[in-house]
Amino acid sequence: MKAIVCSEYGPVANLEYRDLPDPSPGPDEVVVKAEAIGVNYPDGLLVQGLYQMKPETPFVPGMEAAGMVDAVGANVTHVKPGDRVVVMLSNGSYAEKVLAPGNKVFPIPASMDFADACALMCAWGTSHHALKQRANLQAGENLLVLGAAGSTGLAAISIGKAMGARVIAVASSEEKQKACLEAGADIALPYDGLRDALKQHAPRGVDVAFDPVGGAAFDVAARAMARNGRLLVVGFASGEIPKLPVNLVLLKEYSLVGVFWGAFVAKEPDVYAANNRELFGWHSEGRIKTHIDESRPLSEAASAVQRILDRGAIGKTILTP
Q1: Looking at residue 56, what DSSP letter applies?
Q2: What is residue 111's predicted lDDT score, i.e. its pLDDT?
Q3: What is the pTM (predicted TM-score) of this model?
Q4: Beta bridge partners of 107
Q5: How far is 195 from 60, CA to CA, in rounded Å?
Q6: From CA 1, how far away is CA 66, in angstroms rounded?
Q7: Could you tell me whether strands 29-39 and 97-101 are parallel, antiparallel, or unpaired per DSSP bridges?
């Protein structure tokens, strides 16, 4: 099979597109013939050695893939060859055939596109967990979404609306702001002049801030929080890890809340599975809608990952074997 291989940590451009042996499932494993492979921001950090996890090299990056079951191990009973499924991994999905533990393989309905299934895993799973478990977002609250045109940002907009929030999206260009409004945001703002704009559009403050960006945007959010607000630390796409003047937390009486979706998946698998069921149900009901930015051949994985690192994508990027 063809696969993308990270032989050693370094620039994304060093990723190799080459042949690997076809995988065979162990007793508790499943092999999936991929039809769509999701690309995520952490994939780029991982291959550069900048992510929390550092698998031994060489390895195949990629956290999600959707397709048809090719083979199953003797102990796997919930799926069979020919079933439509999506898989969620720490790495290993940038390949024509993906080997996954059986408990990381989820059936998907015939009505769900493979690309949509990929989008609903990492990006949407992160945003869902952030807003549901970490923020306990309530109907009628003000939700500020930074980096709102990225895959997790657009997911946060759609999920926030499904949960009844008033969504204020922030994105860097008019094109990205338009995409935020199309995703359901009530207001879309640029980063320039954001502090004054938030005083106008959220005079009582922000109840929940979703921040995958960090840097200067975090500083603005930290000063715009309402009493009893929840400031979610999701990531640092700006490349700058900010520092928080903790007197703001004291004076405004709000909470700083970390969001590490990988730890959530590992430590609370039953809650994670319930989240997946809810997301899939919302998608089937039309309450949420994914945004696929582009689809590229698997051989162009390096370019696709770099575009996401450069914050050029609007929504989800998909690779096709």
Answers
A1: P
A2: 87
A3: 0.90
A4: 85
A5: 42
A6: 16
A7: antiparallel
| Residue 229 to residue 194: CA distance in whole angstroms | 18
188-219, pLDDT tens digit by residue?
Answer: 999 999 999 999 999 999 999 999 999 999 99
Looking at this protein, which amino acid is placed at residue 217? A
Taking the CA atoms of 59, 62, 64 and 67 in sequence, report the sign of the dihedral they define: negative
**CA 186/CA 127 separation, integer angstroms:** 18
Element (H, E) at 216: helix 215-224
Residue with tokens 């370094």: 10
Q: Express the helix, strand and coil content of the chain in percent, nearest 5 each.
A: 35, 25, 35
Q: Residues 131-153: what's their mean pLDDT?
A: 97
**Bond from prior residue into 58 cis (ω within 30 degrees of 0):** yes
179 within 8 A of 290, measured Cβ to Cβ: no
Rounded to whole angstroms, the Cα distance separating 277 from 128 reads 12
3-class secondary structure, 217: helix
| Single-letter code of the amino acid located at 150 | G
Q: Three-state SS for 209?
A: strand
The residue type of 128 is H
The pLDDT assigned to 52 comes to 81
